[in-house]
Amino acid sequence: MKRFIFLPLFVLSLLLVPLAYAQTTQQTDYQYQLDQYRKNYSQYQIYLRDYKDESSLNNEQKAITAAKDTLRSRELALAHYYWWQSELVQFTKVDLPVVKQAISDFNDIGQYHYQQLGLIDNIVTRADLTSYTKKNRKDVDKQQLAITKNQTAAKIAKIVSIQLDIKRAFDAIIPQLESTKSTNPSIQNGLDQVSDYSNQVNDLVNSLSEQTVKLDLDIKRAPQFFEDSTETLNQIHALQLKLINLIIELDTAYVAR
Amino acid sequence: MWRDKAKSFILELYPELGKLKFFAQLKEVLIPKLHPYTQKFLRFGLPVAIIVFVLLTGLSVGQRVYKLRQPADITPPPLGLTTPTPDVVFNSEFTVIRDSITSTTYQLPDPVPPVVDYKITLEEFDDDLRL
Q1: pTM score, two decimals?
Q2: Exposed/middle/buried for A86, CB within 10 Å: 0-12, 13-18, 19+?
Q3: CA dihedral over A165, A82, B118, A38, signed as positive or negative
Q4: CB contact under 8 A, B94 and A74
């Protein structure tokens, strides 16, 4: 019986490219804008305190200006953050509907935050600022479910890309192992373990995918969901490490060169 | 003849020995007359040389006897030089994948989202949103 690593059922066609972790432009821009936000936020806090101590028109105007600067840098930081997220998912080159959805959603959310700059420029009075903040908070709150799901999908994409790497490595050595396994029980044992581990990985990935699809933030908040998911991810990590170590051992010990 | 020569030589060096009966029957001097300095040198040097000779001989004999009584040193035969068999180290090409797994973060969220304040305002309000 031919041995091969089973892949999750929703995998249709896959082309694997190793993940590139070199710092991208989006990541650089995000880090810069985040620094700007922190500086502006500190300034805003100072002017806000002055305004609360003495509610003069001058203090109010200074506080509004500082608030607008903070809002601009915040929205730019968030825009670049979500575009960076989109890039990272694209790097996996995993062709899955859920992954494509994650790329698209991250791009849209980044675009939303970028478009806030125009709205921020229109803020003049204290009431404008409050109105803008209320609406912005509602919009961001609505995004949380998509963000949580897509971040999990992005991680699943990374796991699948690694699993494809492992599958490709296994496929490279399986012909030689199949021909010699009858004379060496260790090879048969190794092949059985590979099949077992890969099935466990697939089960965990499927389980995590289902939980992501069914996620309801009214029942389980994002931090709790991430915590539970991380536990599953750590199990997958351990299994993938066992899988590749097994394949390396089979490669070094039993594949003739 | 040589016994008489030896007796006359010793008598020449130690005339006081003429009183002994052993030298009494010596008829004539069979060795040439020695120079006084030579005679004096030989008179005192001969006993010293004999003593030294006896001591050295005794030491030599004693050392030989001592060595005979010591156990023989057993020296193992020299070992031939051995060349260790070089271990062929084969690195699988799939270690790159393992490095990728170990360097990947299996935690969420990744990357961690920025911590920002979504309530930038000059007025307090409450909207029951947990942001």
Answers
A1: 0.68
A2: buried
A3: positive
A4: no
